[in-house]
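Task card 7
Instruction: Convert sequence to structure tokens.
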Amino acid sequence: MSVPREVFIAVIGAGGVGKCFLSQLEFLCKRQLTNAVFPKLSLILVSTSKKVLYSPQYTALSFDDLTAAVAQTTQEVLTFPEIIDFLVAAPAQVILVDNTSSQDVADQYPLVLSRGISIVTPNKKAFSGPYKLWQDIFAAAASSGAKVYHESSVGAGLPVISTLKELMETGDSVTKIEGVFSGTMSFLFNSFAPTEGSGGKWSSEVTKAKELGYTEPDPRDDLNGLDIARKLTILARLAGLQIESPTSFPVQSLIPKELESVDSGDKFLHRLPEFDSQMEELKIAAEKEGKIVRFVGSIDVAKKEVKVGLEKFDRSHPIAALKGSDNIISFYTKRYGANPLIIQGAGAGGEVTAMGVTGDLLKVLGRG
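Output:
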């Protein structure tokens, strides 16, 4: 009976998504016990912003009370270069799982890949930052043979990137990508401008979304449109457009100019009712045309145009008919004609985002 190959896993970031991923990784490790063909996965490092728990002899860390073990470890904190040196010295294949949103970590991806370490990550900043970083990442992977996957950087657990890649790699021509790319914005506009009924006041809906945990601690981090712009940058680059950065195309901010500089999210919410009339006018204008206003991102591949902002849709349009906090992404292609290929579902949340990361890990294992 052959011995399964061993693959070492290092995890950076053990917060919301990281914690969910570690739970899913534990499931995969148990799966190997009943499947001799599946690789033996050994977790050898877990790093947070303040602690690093690792196995100097490359024996697997225990999943039992892992969160407590990380919090209580007295091991010397390794710098990121030291972590990479530790991983490079491992006696078998290593996969680095970056569950952070750190630009500093993202900037190191070319070095990590050039040293033969594969990467799976939901970190948008690695793939939406300067175009040169994008080029360096994939050049390093091509040179070393290491793999890099980032499905969760756009749609959490939704198969957005893999679908786009498959369309293009099988020879289809993608002409346009359009959709609601933010669970926060989906929830806000489905509540503020529903297909049936009048909806609530804009400021009330933003406050409610924050209370329900749909927004960042400061809702302006959602309302400025930058998170969506990062996702559009990634998809546009995958579609062949050389987008320099998320600020190199039109991005409509829903933050009133007068509130851009207030010094806290709470003060922003306190003053937001002063500007409800602005959003109400937009909603009424759309209703007079028999339409619904939504906050969307779009990529016109042929025209090489990318934009993020408010658009009006017929009530019967799939984007208008979204429910809750779902995302929806439509791919218009030569093969699919006038009826786009549509992907819809939860586009945020720890478990589904971690599922996308775990799915990418399985892709690396399948190509190892």
